[in-house]
Structures are given as C-alpha cells and as structure tokens.
Amino acid sequence: SPESAQPTRLLTLLRTHSWLVGTTGELHRPGEVWVANEQVRSLLGSHVPYAATTLPQELNLVLGMIAQPTPSTLLPLLRAWGAEPSCEGSIDEMTRLLELVGTWSAASPEVHAELSIVPCIWLPDLKSNDGMRGGMHGAGRIGRFHLPSLCAWEDPAQLIDVTDPTNPLRELMAQLASHAGLRVLAQAYDLRNLYPVQENLANLGMAL
Asked: Do residues 23 and 52 touch, judged by C-beta distance below 8 A?
C-alpha cells in the first residue's frame, strides 16, 4: 500500500526528478503535479499543472502527487498569484476558494495569521472587463488577488466602487480606489454564498 511503501532509491529518484509530463507538455516533479479530480478542478481550474496521463490512485499517492487542496499546498500558490500583476479567474472558482480560505482561517491560528498577510481575495479588474462579453461575471475574467485588509464586504454608500454610470464622480472614485488598492466583494460576488464564512473573512482584516 502507499502508506507502507519504502522510499527505495528508484522511488526517491522518481519523486525528486522532473519526468512526469503535464497537460501543457512540460516536465514536472510528481510533487508539483495535481491529481485532476473533481474537487481540484472545480477549485483551481487550469491554474495548476495536471498529469497528461491518468495514473492509478495508489501510484499518485506513492509518487507524492497533490490530491487535494490543503493550507500547505494552497498557500504557496496564493503567494505566487498575489505577486502577479493580473490573474485570470471566474467568480465560481474564486467563490469556492474564498469559502475554503474562510474555513481554514478559523481552523488554525497559524493558518489564520498566514492568510491575513497573503493576497487571498481575488476580484475582477473593473476597467479590463468593462468591454468583455458577460462583464466581470463571465468566465475567464482578468483580475488580481488582494490582501484582506484592502477589501470590504459591502459599500452601500459607493465610496470605493461607484457602479452608477451616470455618477460624474465614478471615474475619479474608481481611479482613487484603484490607486489605494481598495475593492469591494459585493460588486463581484453573490454574498449569499459567502455568508457562512463572513465572520472568518472579517477576522482576517476585511472590513464589513
């Protein structure tokens, strides 16, 4: 079984060298490749490498492939994505990601502390998506990850995200908010899906 498998020299070589072909044709170490199960695909989509060939589950485990998202596997991805100037995503995927982030933040003080300083909240870029089919609610929107402390749950006074196209201050407020890095979840997400983790997200530093 995978649990009792001894790390022979051959197994060590297989785990530590880039030989496994990914879906993009690149070679990876098994520990860099995700198992393409339903949970992973619904959460991470095409943002992570998968094996080009489906392997038996037992072999996946023996080689050390990543079978499910955990804080130790997802936090490095969030740090990398947060360092990028833009990141394509969909509201459905990112809603599931926020649900996971909110759940994890309440489960462990160490993970909570880490998530509070990692850009872990994705929001679509308003300007980049204005002219795109489906607006910023469609699939494959351009956006970026933000620190929780730079995000608010709602903005009923529209001081940050001015949505009224007739408001003469819309462009100015959008520029000021963009310059400060401030964003509001309510403009992009259906908050009803996130109410179970609202308090947990607020505890990361997000304004309600």
From this structure: yes
End-to-end distance of the chain based on CA atoms, in angstroms?
48
Task: Pull the structure tokens for residue 169.
Answer: 């201050």
Question: From residue 60, how far is each of 9, 19, 25, 95, 140 by CA, in Å?
Answer: 18, 14, 19, 28, 29
Name the 3-class secondary structure at 107.
helix
98 Cβ contact partners less than 8 Å away, ≥ 6 residues apart: 121, 189, 194, 197, 201
Tokens at residue 107, please?
């489960």
pLDDT, one tens digit per residue, over 7-22 is: 789 999 999 999 999 9
What is the token pair recorded at 152? 């608010």
Q: What is the pTM of this model?
A: 0.78
- Cα separation of 80 and 35, whole Å? 20
